[in-house]
Every structure is written in structure tokens, then in C-alpha cells.
User: What shape does this take?
Amino acid sequence: MTDAEMSPDMIWISGWGFGVPFSLQPQYAFAHDGSRFTQLAAPIPDRSDGTFTVTLFQTDGDTVFTRSYPFRGATIPRRVADSVVATLGPAPGHAVNTPVDLARQVQAEARRRMSSWYIPVETILLGLDRTIWIGLRVTDEGRGYLILNDRGDPIGSLMVPASTRVRQASATRIWVTATDEDGLSSVVRYRVSGL
Assistant: This one.
């Protein structure tokens, strides 16, 4: 079994591990009352359209649902991909007993395995009222959220500024952290209507 088959979102060379750029490691979220947890997963896309999967479990191990949702990925600009790949490799001074060309090997493998399209999802959150909030990739419009009910049906969406993250939510309220130009964060609560 190859490295890519064992861990499709990781590159392992000479004992060093690096994430494949623009991939999504599985994300997990747990209910505040400990009754359930969820997983968000998305394979590295090999074409512009793909799917991400949400699975909801009870803590006894029973699966409540597994659903896949289609998406059309935005193209990753070449300059962005090149910039990210150029940063891969061990930090200077930390490459003890490693191949001299480790950074080159990692960068070559990253170029081979990374996608040409962004995965649109980044995070998952279980709401206080059994809603499920999927955090989308930040765009020029801001940070979007897809909201699902406890059966996995989409029931709404929400857009917040890019400097804002939803930290807790329900169908009627959200709690966010907002970061200002000075890098200072504050917690703000908003009322939600229309879900």
C-alpha cells in the first residue's frame, strides 16, 4: 500500500509528514451534551465537481446518517499553489539526519497530489438545537455556513465577514468571534431569523 493510499491527505518522506496543500483532514465536532458527534470529510478532488460527506453518530456508535453533498470547486490560481508549495519542507535547522533534498521531494510530491480546485468546506459545528453548521472556505464575499437539520437536510445558509467565525449556534442565535484590524478578538451574539 502506498503513502497516498494509506493517507491521501498526507505526504510522508523519511519520517517527515506534511499535509497535501488544499486538502481537508477529516473534521470532527461534538455535541455540547455529549449525545452525538459528527465527521466532515472531503476527498482531494480530481476534477472541478466533487462531494463532501457529513456523518452523524450517536455516542454509542450508531450512525444517524451519512450524506454526501455535491459541490463545484473554484480553481486554485497557479501563483497561489506555487506559493504554498514553496513553503513545504522542514524548517531551517530542523532537518537532522534527513535527505539533503527533502524539501524538493516533498514539494514534488505535493505538486503531484494536490488538486487544481479548492474544497469548499473547512469546519463543522454541532448546534445547541441539533442543527449542523458546515463552515465554508472564505471568499471575497466572506465566510459562509451551510446549515443542516438533524437528518442532514439543508435548511439554510449564512454569510458572515471573513474576519468572523461562528463558535456556537442554534436556529435562532449564533455566537461568533470577530477579529478587528489590530488582531483583537471579541465575542458577539446575533439573533438568526428565517431558518
